[in-house]
Write a structure and sequence with these properties.
This protein is an alpha+beta fold and 483 residues long. It has four domains: 142 residues, ABC-type transport auxiliary lipoprotein component (Rossmann fold, 3-Layer(aba) Sandwich), CATH 3.40.50; 37 residues, no CATH class; 85 residues, Beta Barrel (Thrombin, subunit H); 170 residues, Porin (Beta Barrel). The chain is built from seven helices and 25 strands. The strands form five sheets. It has an eight-stranded antiparallel β-barrel. The longest helix is centred in the middle third of the chain and has 23 residues. It is flat, with a radius of gyration of 31 Å. The two termini are 33 Å apart.
Length: 483
């Protein structure tokens, strides 16, 4: 309650300071939205009705719409003594929209729907083995298998052979229409499928995918637009709260206000510049407080804030060097939630390493890690890191076989990022590999049956070379962010 009180007080203070009307682009009220199926709407069990119900449900959950679905519309039409047919055309959309006082409508059209049993993976593998045996038996074996397969297909023509491994496919289109003119404004498609279970279970899983896609697409189609009310250090107060569907974790892009300029007797609008991104941390009914994740210019009251549905991601390209191993490595790292206090990372690397024979071997590695930010500001961050990499070392044995050695080499370290621009950071890191667990050198060879066998490497002149990755590593690179 104290937080809500403080949030409301800051909101009142911010309005008092501003002394200016809100930007006309700000989302101030829920938008009436009519949602209709293109066909099959009279049957509640039809796939058209099910998908339309999901669209209406997800739109309601977003809380930014006053949703008018078919059931509500029918009540309005009864009051107007207007009949509603099963097929929705552009002319009826205009009529229905006027009755419902909705400026826009979503028309849901199922393009493709199908359910059929498919062979399980183990049966497909058995079938591949049977075909392989038939090929080995020659022409007679191939003909015999075709005859048997044809007989089975004929006997089970009208019977579902795989009732517990049903593949369900749903393809649909959701089209936004201006109800005053009947013109299409935007659209998005839904492609969902699931294989497994009986028809009911498979359909349920596919409809879950439909719901997830619809929710994301509706957010992108109707983005919330807010306004900066107050800025205090690393915290920003924004208009809009729970009432409009803002949630903790919602990300807003902040931009300076648009400006108007007279050019050749024509007034043009110049868009503002994006200056930062903010993530919501606290909510009241009509406002929210957020933390600045990243900014590259000043953020001031009156600036525009637009909801962002894109995931924040980053990729690092780094060069690593160790003098005591010695090793040279080029590494690409994908950060998961890069601007959070705790983030994950997946990396891949290519490079070289010196073994105990003083030969230079090729190195390929991949791994996963965690980063905990000890210092976390917009222009600078310092994090403690732990990484669990698996490396494959490649070279030739004494009989010229191409052999590989697996090496598990966990490491701890520290990493610093320094902002150079809106989407670029300088990365400096140091790490220490504190363990070195190795397997044995192996090589692979294909046998006469087409399978692959693995053999131990052959060392005749000297003992098998050893690879020790323990030691300090230093790296420098660039991070590229996307948001």
């Amino acid at each position: 309650m104290n937080r809500i009180f403080i949030l409301s007080l800051l909101l009142f203070t911010a309005f008092g300071k501003a002394q200016q009307p809100l930007s006309p682009e700000v989302t101030l009220a829920k938008q009436p939205l009519l949602i209709l199926p293109a066909k099959g709407g009279d049957d509640p069990e039809s796939i058209d009705s099910k998908v339309t119900a999901i669209v209406a449900s997800k739109a309601t959950e977003l809380k930014r719409f006053e949703v008018i679905d078919r059931n509500h519309l029918e009540q309005l039409l009864e009051e107007q003594a207007i009949q509603m047919s099963g097929i929705i055309d552009d002319q009826s959309i205009v009529q229905f929209g006027k009755v419902a006082s909705a400026p826009e409508a979503l028309i849901v059209r199922v393009l493709n729907f199908g359910q059929e049993g498919v062979p399980p993976e183990d049966e497909e593998e058995e079938d591949r083995k049977d075909r392989k045996v038939a090929r080995k038996a020659g022409l007679f074996g191939i003909i015999a298998k075709q005859v048997v397969d044809a007989a089975v297909d004929k006997a089970t023509k009208d019977v579902e052979r795989y009732p517990n491994n049903i593949q369900t496919i749903i393809q649909a289109e959701v089209r936004k229409v201006d109800v005053e003119t009947g013109k299409s404004l935007a659209s998005f498609t839904i492609n969902a499928s699931h294989t497994g279970g009986n028809k009911k279970a498979s359909l349920a899983k596919t409809l879950l995918q439909v719901g997830w896609q619809v929710s994301n697409q509706l957010r992108e189609m109707y983005l919330l637009t807010s306004e900066v009310l107050d800025v205090r250090g690393n915290e920003v107060m924004l208009l809009l709260g729970k009432e409009m569907g803002v949630q903790k974790g919602t990300v807003f892009e902040i931009a300076s206000p648009e400006t108007k300029k007279l050019l050749r007797d024509r007034e043009i609008t110049i868009p503002g510049r994006t200056v930062g991104i903010v993530r919501v941390t606290e909510l009241s009914r009509d406002a929210n407080r957020g933390r600045i994740l990243r900014k590259w210019d000043r953020i001031e009251p009156g600036y525009r804030a637009v909801e962002s549905t894109r995931h924040i991601a980053s990729i690092d390209l780094q060069g690593l060097y160790s003098n005591n191993v010695p090793a040279y490595t080029l590494q690409a790292q994908l950060d998961i939630a890069p601007l959070d206090k705790i983030s994950g990372a997946a990396h891949f690397n290519l490079g070289t390493v010196r073994d105990s024979r003083e030969d230079t071997d090729f190195r390929f590695g991949f791994g996963f890690g965690l980063q905990y930010k000890l210092i976390h500001t917009s222009p600078f961050a310092l994090a403690a890191t732990i990484t669990l990499p698996i490396n494959l070392i490649f070279r030739s044995d004494d009989q010229s076989h191409s052999v590989a050695l697996p090496v598990f080499s966990p490491e701890i370290g520290a990493r610093t990022t320094i902002m150079l621009g809106p989407t670029r950071d300088l990365v400096l890191a140091v790490s220490y590999v504190f363990a070195n667990a190795t397997g044995s050198w192996k090589y692979s060879k294909e046998n006469d049956e087409g399978d692959t066998d693995t053999f131990a490497a052959v060392w005749t002149n000297r003992p098998a070379p050893k690879v020790d990755l323990r030691g300090f590593y230093f790296s420098v690179g660039m991070r590229f962010l996307s948001f």
